[in-house]
Design brief:
The structure holds 3 protein chains of 3 kinds. Helices cover 55% and strands 13% of the residues of chain A. Chain A is an alpha/beta fold. Chain A has 2 domains: 185 residues, Cytidine Deaminase, domain 2 (3-Layer(aba) Sandwich); 221 residues, no CATH class. In chain A, strands 1, 2, 3, 4, 5, 6, 7, 8, 11 and 12 form a 10-stranded mixed beta sheet that branches. A two-stranded antiparallel sheet of chain A has the order 9-10. Chain A is elongated. Chain B is an alpha/beta fold. Chain B folds into 2 domains: 281 residues, Glycogen Phosphorylase B (Rossmann fold, 3-Layer(aba) Sandwich); 167 residues, Glycogen Phosphorylase B (Rossmann fold), CATH 3.40.50. By secondary structure, chain C is of the alpha+beta class. Chain C folds into 2 domains: 143 residues; 44 residues. A 6-stranded antiparallel beta sheet of chain C has the order 1-2-3-4-5-6. A 3-stranded antiparallel beta sheet of chain C has the order 7-8-9. In chain C, helix 1 runs antiparallel to helix 2. Chain C is elongated, with a radius of gyration of 21 Å. The chains are: A alpha/beta, B alpha/beta, C alpha+beta. Chains A and C meet through strand 11 and strand 12 of A and strand 5, strand 6 and helix 3 of C.
């Protein structure tokens, strides 16, 4: 039996920035649950032990991390000095710590030797040591540690790796000390950038405060107007809720409010969200202005207006032809002539009304477009929403036809289904929401049969009209859906997070990974702890911004069922109230 | 060494479908049916109990069925019974859709990796069972089919099903029916040679159904009905009986267990005659709850319109209830005269039968539940069923599987000119598909599954001890 | 320190298992699949181009040809970058955790590290995968809320499940043996390293 269940492996987490530090003592935290030592810094010779102890006490008070002297570090440039090693062992008696870790590096050798002194141990077992290098800066910025304010739960997590990140993050104060501060003790650890570098940032922060306040004031004014009574009356509020432009504007208003609020972001996620909103707003506006500059050059607006009217006319003409075709014998089908004529005339009259309305409007189209085009400076998304609304308005006749057809068809299906139940001696029990059996008398059955026959024979005619107009309607809905998809994409893409992932991948960490460094026999195993960044898919998933439009995401089956039963379908979200 | 001994059975089976030693050779049986637990019913418990008893007798048994909701993949039941829940689409009534081909890759993989020698399909309603028979015949495995139900001959659906059954059974090695009536029916429907049809009745586990007279309420008379509430079980008859008898006997109570589309009829009857306190609808029952419902009653009523072998009345009799049943299908064969009152399937006749039972109950001339239980206990046991099934397997193992050419001839000769040709064509297609699959993944690279069944199965204590010892040896080596 | 053994994957593709012992408490198991076969690559490419040429001959639109080149290039990049896994390795570090790394043919590596405290068990499971029934090795993760529960199942060496059948290399011994060898190694590593030695009994149980 060569392999026995050995004792716990001792792990030493060593900051990679300290690897070239001068000899001294290691200070850090000992986590006994994991049998691991987290080295935070190296204190150089010479020092006065009392001062070190005092300093550690101070650090412990501020950071609430039990920092202690863990062992000694010797970095001998030349040969190993005998006297030094003895001295280092003696140090162990001054700062008593169990176990006492001794790490020594010789010359430029990559392989360090590491030993453990356990004075009070009964069984001096040879423990295996793993050296894990970590980057203090990256570990701190990766936000893998639990939030700092939940100190109560630390005891449970002590067995996890997050305890190590927690230790590093808590001793942030240690790293903030000024480099040029001549204290009694000299330390080596990762040094955060001095105050000088962040002066510009600070200035910007100061400047942004009044800007934010001004913005907040304007926004509150704007939202006050929006919320005023005048706009709440029935036809207007109904209109607002249907126009996607209004929805989009409201959405952007909320975004601005989030950015300009002078409340400090509580945690990493909120900060990310703010930054994401800001970047997406910027990109949106930039794209909008690009679009505007393209539109207003070379009288493109006028060209657009000139083509728009003929297109609308052409659509109406095509519809007229279609209706004429339906009123005859479409595809060789024989329809109920009377009903066919009635329906056809009704729809033809509608188109007639529509054409005259368009012609009434035509002189003003260019002007309207010119002013509407200005809105592109509010962002590409707003412009796209306006486009979607214009499409909806210009195809209003199709929508009307669809509603008439669907209503008629729905009524017929409904009547047929209830009469079918009548035949089978059943009826729908409204109170119990189930089908009960029921006995009808002769008159009821007679009338029922008569009505059933009439409905059944008129069904093909209605169904054909319904089918044709539903197909047209679906076309419009698909176009609008695509536009909304693009708007949603711009609205919800967390651009800032993506850029961060690209340039500073350790800021968005999913966990850690280890790399085995090359090793030598007899020397401890060396591992390099790296930050494992989130994958791009996960980044988008985690930091996606919520969008206002959650479409009625019917499954395909329920959509087909709705279409078959003649229920109305809408591209926009169903509010609590019914549309009609 | 040790893995070899653990897979002794597969290794023996591996020597191939070509050679079969007669006598006590252990069979590797694959039960295929759409109906298995967690679904509840006669076929399900038949497959389960039969498998358990066959494992006890030293055979290796596995069950193949379709996925039920989240229950998919490979599961193990007690004594290492391995169940494959295959991800196939369910079409109607828990029966899978069939294209005759799409299940071949998976079934072939399972047959090969488990070294199956006999494919045993259950229930003529199960499309998967027919598929498996079809594939097994293509692969040259022996096939056995158990029919659990009776069919008519007249209506369109029966004519179609009977035709399919003819095709499916004409080259099956052996057919098992659950009663003589069922055998007669099957032989006629599928135009079979009666010599290859055996009768092995169903059984109940008598220890599960013991009487408990203390649970009865003797101030009233309780009639228990436990069945799925569907047309075939004669629920329309029940809805006629309930008001009639309840008017006559004010102390009469009904206890109905089961769920189904006809439940609404019973609810309506209950509402129309204000019988909410006397007719209790319990809804769907778990198998282990059935006994607790049965022992609460005095009389068990079965109103089935067609039944090959009624397990419910045996269970009820085993619990000591007086059984009143319709005289249809195989029911008269099931229980002796003194334990059952048989009636015609009409409301009037059933009412008469029930009145007779009530009169006997009042006069106290009924035998006590204990004596009834003692009598019934000896009738049907699963061990007996397993023994008889084993004999069928032994017989089948000696038979030859029809080679492709003869199979085609049989199909064309036996199933009529049109259907025969169509299915012969399908058989050829299936064979080509099999050849293709064998080329894609040759049998030799499909690894053999670990045998988990029986006392020497892979994850019993013994096996583990052996394994640990081996691991230690390996450790010492390294 | 390192040794190598050859096996066949579930699809009959030759694979090689390599073990390396970095130190007493740290070992690495790597399964390497076959390299991209030039034969299959050229077969697919020429098939696409032939089809494109056929279309071109019919429609006489040179767009088809450029589109075909584009499609093959994009397809190749996607295949190399997201689909084709060259090697999957498992690094077991004493009392720290298990690290799973899969390296794609393009050099992309995706790594997951599982802390030892999260590992509940290592088991061989049996499952239906496509049109096959296979054995696979997986790590069960502990559910933080429920000490009995399993929050996730991490399958290891996934790329051994499938593979193209174009290569015809044959090596003796079957996949199960390979799995058993691997689980034997892993079992011992995990047992030795994990803090409760009681897990020994069920670490080889099969669900």
């Amino acid at each position: 039996m060569s392999l026995q269940v050995t004792a716990m492996v001792l792990k030493v987490f060593f900051p990679s920035c300290c690897s070239s530090a001068d000899s001294g003592i290691l200070i850090g935290r000992w986590i006994s649950e994991q049998n691991s030592a987290v080295v935070l810094a190296v204190v150089h010779f010479p020092f006065i032990p009392v001062q070190v102890k005092q300093y550690l006490g101070e650090v412990q008070r501020v950071t609430k991390v039990s920092v202690s002297v863990l062992g000694s570090w010797s970095n001998s440039k030349q040969e190993k000095e005998e006297s030094l090693s003895e001295f280092l062992e003696d140090l162990g008696t001054i700062f008593c710590h169990e176990p006492w870790i001794q790490i020594s590096k010789e010359g430029d050798s990559k392989f360090w030797s590491c030993s453990i002194l356990q004075k009070h141990s009964k069984n001096p077992q040879e423990e295996e040591i793993i050296l894990v290098y970590y980057d203090q800066r990256k570990v701190m910025l990766s936000h893998l540690h639990p939030p700092l304010d939940t100190a109560g739960q630390r005891a449970e997590d002590a067995s996890k790796l997050s305890a190590i990140f927690d230790t590093v993050a808590r001793s942030q104060v240690l790293f903030m000390t000024d480099r040029y501060d001549e204290g009694p003790i000299k330390l080596t650890h990762w040094q955060s950038d001095g105050v000088e570098a962040s002066i510009i940032v600070e200035l910007l922060k100061q400047a942004s405060v009044p800007a934010c306040m001004l913005l907040t004031f304007l926004l509150s004014l704007l939202s006050g107007i929006c919320r005023s009574r005048v706009l709440k009356f029935w036809p207007l509020s109904f209109l607002w809720s249907k126009l996607s432009t209004c929805e989009q504007l409201g959405h952007r208003l909320q975004h601005l409010q989030v950015i300009s609020s002078n409340k400090k972001a509580q945690n990493q996620n909120q900060l990310m969200r703010k930054a994401n909103i800001f970047v997406s707003l910027l990109i949106d506006v930039a794209l909008g202005i690009l679009l505007m500059s393209w539109l207003y050059r070379k009288n493109r607006i006028g060209q657009l207006a000139d083509t728009l009217i003929p297109v609308a006319d052409h659509v109406a003409e095509e519809l007229q032809d279609l209706l004429q075709w339906l009123m005859g014998a479409p595809a060789g089908l024989k329809m109920n002539r009377a009903l066919d004529q009635v329906l056809g005339r009704f729809f033809l009259y509608h188109i007639h009304l529509w054409i005259s309305y368009i012609h009434l409007l035509s002189p003003f189209i260019e002007m309207i477009l010119w002013y509407v085009g200005l809105s592109a400076c509010l962002g590409l998304t707003v412009a796209l929403c306006i486009l979607s609304d214009i499409v909806a308005l210009l195809t209003f006749h199709i929508y009307c036809f669809y509603v008439y057809g669907a209503r008629l068809y729905c009524l017929k299906i409904y009547g047929l289904s209830s009469l079918w139940r009548l035949f089978r001696g059943k009826k729908w029990n409204v109170l119990r929401q189930r089908v009960d059996s029921c006995s009808y008398d002769l008159d009821q059955l007679f009338i029922g049969t008569l009505l059933f026959t009439i409905l059944l024979f008129l069904l093909p005619t209605t169904a054909l009209y319904y089918l044709v107009f539903t197909l047209l309607r679906l076309l419009v809905v698909i176009v609008q859906g695509i536009i909304h998809l693009v708007v949603d994409l711009i609205d919800s893409l967390p651009l800032y997070s993506l850029i961060l992932r690209l340039c500073r991948s350790y800021r968005l960490a999913a966990g850690v990974k280890f790399r085995v460094l090359e090793q030598q026999d007899g020397k401890p195993l060396r591992l390099l702890m790296q930050i494992n960044p989130l994958s791009y898919g996960r980044v988008v998933q985690t930091y996606r911004l919520p969008t206002y439009s959650c479409y009625p995401r019917d499954s395909w089956a329920s959509l087909c069922k709705k279409l078959f039963l003649g229920e109305l379908i809408y591209p926009w979200k169903h509010k609590g109230d019914k549309q009609n | 060494m040790a893995p070899g001994s653990a897979q002794g059975a597969p290794a023996a089976g591996r020597s191939g479908p070509g050679m079969q030693g007669g006598g006590p050779a252990a069979h590797i049986v694959c039960m295929v049916s759409d109906f298995f637990y967690p679904n509840m019913g006669g076929v399900e418990s038949h497959v389960y109990q039969l498998s358990q008893c066959l494992i006890e007798r030293g055979h290796k048994v596995l069950v193949v069925t379709h996925a039920y909701g989240h229950r998919k993949g490979v599961r193990y039941l007690s004594s290492g019974l391995k169940v494959y829940y295959l991800p196939l689409k369910v079409m109607y009534n828990q029966s899978t859709a069939t294209t005759l081909f799409h299940s071949l890759p998976l079934l072939r993989y399972i047959f090969v990796r488990e070294r199956v020698t006999i494919v045993h399909a259950h229930s003529s309603f199960s499309a998967m069972a027919h598929d498996a028979l079809f594939h097994a015949k293509t692969m040259g495995l022996r096939t056995v089919f158990t029919d659990h139900s009776l069919f008519g001959f007249a209506d369109v659906s029966s004519v179609l099903t009977n035709k399919l059954l003819t095709v499916s059974l004409c080259d099956t090695n052996h057919i098992i029916c659950v009663s003589y009536t069922s055998k007669e029916n099957t032989v006629l429907r599928a135009a079979l040679d009666p010599r290859i049809v055996s009768v092995i009745p169903n059984a109940v586990d008598p220890t599960d159904f013991t009487p408990d007279p203390s649970r009865r309420d003797d101030s009233t008379i309780t009639i228990v009905v436990v069945s799925r509430l569907v047309y075939r079980k004669g629920i329309d008859l029940l809805s006629g009986i309930i008001p009639e008898l309840c008017q006559k006997y004010p102390e009469l109570h009904f206890l109905v267990g089961g769920e189904g589309p006809k439940r609404i009829i019973l609810e309506e009857v209950r509402e129309r005659y204000q019988l909410h306190d006397r007719v209790r609808l319990l809804g769907g029952l778990e198998h282990q709850d059935v006994r607790n419902v049965l022992v609460q009653g005095h009389i068990f009523l079965n109103t089935s319109l067609t039944e090959a072998f009624c397990m419910a009345i045996v269970e009820a009799a085993s619990c000591g209830l007086q059984v009143v049943s319709t005289r249809v299908g195989g029911i008269p064969e099931v229980l002796p005269e003194n334990l059952i009152i048989l009636c015609e399937p009409s409301v009037k006749s059933l009412c008469d039968g029930l009145e007779k039972a009530i009169a006997q109950l009042r006069s106290g001339t009924l035998p006590s539940p204990e004596t009834v239980h003692k009598e019934v206990k000896t009738f049907y046991t699963w061990r007996n069923v397993a023994e008889r099934t084993e004999k069928v397997y032994d017989r089948v193992a000696d038979e030859v599987v029809l080679p492709m050419k003869e199979r085609l001839d049989r199909l064309m000769a036996h199933c009529g000119p049109v259907t025969g040709c169509i299915f012969a064509f399908f058989a050829v297609l299936n064979f080509l598909l099999l050849v293709f699959l064998r080329w894609m993944t040759p049998d030799s690279i499909i690894d053999v599954a670990i045998d988990a069944t029986g006392p020497k199965g892979a994850w019993t204590k013994q096996y583990f001890l052996g394994k640990k010892r081996r691991a230690k040896e390996e450790l010492a080596d390294s | 320190m390192a040794e190598q053994r050859r096996f066949l994957s579930a699809a009959g593709v030759p694979i090689a298992l390599r073990r390396r012992q970095h130190s007493a408490s740290c070992r690495e198991l790597a399964v390497r699949g076959p390299r991209l076969q030039l034969r299959s690559l050229s077969a697919v490419t020429s098939a696409v181009w032939l089809a494109a040429y056929g279309l071109f001959a019919l429609s006489e639109n040179s767009m088809v040809l450029s589109a075909a080149i584009f499609i093959t290039l994009i397809g190749l990049i996607i295949y190399l970058h997201f689909v084709k896994i060259d090697q999957e390795s498992l690094l077991v570090i004493g009392s720290l955790g298990i690290q799973v790394t899969s390296s794609y043919a393009s050099g992309k590596e995706s790594t997951t590290f599982i802390e030892m405290a999260q590992v509940k068990d290592v088991v061989i499971n049996e499952a239906i995968h496509m049109q096959k029934v296979i054995y696979y090795l997986c790590i069960l993760l502990q559910d933080p809320e429920d000490p009995q529960g399993v929050s996730e199942v991490v399958p290891l060496f996934q790329f051994c499940f499938h593979g193209n059948n174009l290569s015809t290399g044959r090596v003796d011994s079957s996949r199960k043996e390979e799995l058993q060898a691997t689980i034997g190694l892993l079992d011992r590593s995990v047992q030795k390293l994990s803090r409760d030695p009681g897990a020994e009994e069920d670490s080889s149980s099969i669900k």
